[in-house]
Amino acid sequence: MIQVKWPVKLTFEGYLSDDAGIDNRYELVDGELVMVLLPTPDQSDVIDLLTDVFRTEIGREGYP
User: Fold this and answer.
1) Separation between Cα atoms, residue 43 and residue 48, nearest integer Å
2) What are the DSSP calls for the chain, one per residue?
3) Residue 17 and residue 20: Cα distance in Å, rounded?
4) CA 41, CA 30: separation in Å to the nearest integer?
């Protein structure tokens, strides 16, 4: 993760209302913005596999 230095610590409301025109994904951690990197192709494959497994299990258990 890449830490982004903001002039002041942000509140959750400030985080939601701030639009710096940046297309990156960020998390708000203790008032600091932390850039979230996109997953690698291998990580995306694992995410897809886990999603399929969870969907199958949810269907098998009869949940909507």
Assistant:
1) 9
2) -EEE--SSPPPHHHHHH---S--SEEEEETTEEEEEPPPPHHHHHHHHHHHHHHHHHHHHTT--
3) 10
4) 30
The β-bridge partners of 34 are 3, 27
Instruction: Compute how many other C-beta atoms are within 10 angstroms of the C-beta atom of residue 58.
Output: 11
- Residue 19, both tokens: 């639009």
pTM over 0.70: no
Percentage of the chain surpassing pLDDT 70? 77
Phi/psi class of residue 49: alpha, beta or left (left: φ > 0; alpha: ψ in -120 to 50)?
Answer: alpha
Contact call for residues 35 and 1 (beta carbons, < 8 A): yes
Domain total in the chain = 1
